[in-house]
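Session log. Operator J.P. requested a structure for one protein chain; no other inputs attached. Running the standard single-chain path with token output.
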Amino acid sequence: MSKTARVIAAVALSMLVALFAALDAWLVVAGAVGRGRMIALLGMEMAVMLVVIWVAMVCLERRVFGPLGRLQEQLSLILGSDCDHRLQMESGHLLGELPVMIEELAEQLARERLETARTLGAAAERIEHRKSRLEAVLRDLHEGVVVCNDNHRIVLFNQSASASLEGAGPVGLHRPVTSLVPGGRIAEEYARLRNDNEADHGPPGVRRFKAVTANGRELDIRMGLVVEPDGRCAGYVLSFSGDQSSSAGGGQQRPAELLSDRPEFYDFSLLESRYDRDDITRRLEELDYVVFDTETTGLNPGRGDAMVQICGVRLVNGRPTGEEFDTLVNPGMAIPRASIRFHGITDDMVADAPDVRQAVRSFSAFVQGAVLVAHNAAFDMKFLRMQEANSGVLFENAVLDTLLLSFVLQPEHDVHTLDAIAARFGVSISDEARHTAPGDARATAEIFLKMLPALRRGGLETLGSALEASNRVLHVRKLQERF
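Structure written below.
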């Protein structure tokens, strides 16, 4: 029963009690009934009150409050990300023409959004033309180019930079360049260049220096400042030759599990990012995420089951960056036929794949600095954390679960499977992609991005508030399991 229904029930019960009390007082004063009859009368009155209240509340819940709750959930979808969503209301509700009027408003909103999209599309075409020119220039450059914000996070990099930094670690949007070139040299040179610029008040200068990457490759780096019109330093540009030789036995091959379709990555809005990645008071839209899924030999990691595939999709600034982690895993055991029928991964497919320890280490490097997101995350995290001691890594990332967030956003629904949530948020999952780590991870990422506006409208704007709401749902579910 909803909170509103409980309040109305309490008010109605109070009114009935007052009415019957007044009637009983009159009967006693008038001497119309004796003591024995009065006791019987009180019992009948109590029974009548309970029956009337129960019937009224059941009717209100089924005909008014329940439909209102489902209407609110669907309206949240329409306002957030799916204005083409059509209301699904049960027959027999007492909301009158309200659902029809809301659907008409939704259609009007869809038309206005379409017109806005057309206007923005025309502007985007002009921007895209300029971006294509930038991409062409970057692609043809033999020098590696990396642009970083003031917090040493990567805003832009080209293919030559990626090639020069092979094996030093994951190269990606909003990843720390200081993990690729450790030792503090880049931060030191940036501080000197920025101080020189502030002291001279002239055109930004340039610094040249040598630095060694995490895998022992020496780079001859040229650093220049990114200066805003008001004179503030927003970051810096690093350029270096793309054919540097390694001082430690040559560069390593780029891990096969790090995949990317785009030739260049850039998001200049990240120049404004200046915050601690572990700060849970930050807005959800500002955080980096890796949405992931695993496939396993079975459902019991404590009894020897292990992962056979891990896939993660990286999100920055509310959109996919194109970076994916996708690897099969050799579990060190035969894959049961029942599991093969579920996910299609056979023993032959994983024979030459990395073992669990190697896969977990690589995945840990990929998710560094990101919030982890999964559907029924406790299951996937259990398999990862069972391997922490064996692999020598710790998954200390914050974790969000789309299953729990669905309970938070849509408490009126009873089914919160991945398929059910995807249908409610307008996310399609093909039969071929379902029950595969890449397919489920990509679908969960799309669902999560559509959840963000709904969370914000519900007052859950920060990571901390989303985690707190999820923990409340988890606590309630644990209590329900006891009864």
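Operator note: Confidence is low (pLDDT under 50) at residues 243-264.
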